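Batch job 17 of 40 flagged for manual review because the log was empty.
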Amino acid sequence: QMIGAYYLIRDSIVSVGAILGAYLWSRSPAANFLGAAAFGIAGTILYLRATRHERRRARENIKIDISRLRLK
């Protein structure tokens, strides 16, 4: 049942995106491109903000590993 719910939600979002894309395309292909670019930039910013602490921890761990290797 969980798999079915997942596909229902995912396909509903994809369908809304397709309808919105078709509407923007009917207005002008440039509007469709700009809308897609805006969502892409927003998604990238959201991803970078959500993983900021994880990336910081990974950098610190790499620094610790490098300093351990230098001490050997």
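Reviewer: the log was empty due to a logging misconfiguration, but the result itself is present. The chain has a mean pLDDT of 92. Unflagging and moving on to job 18.
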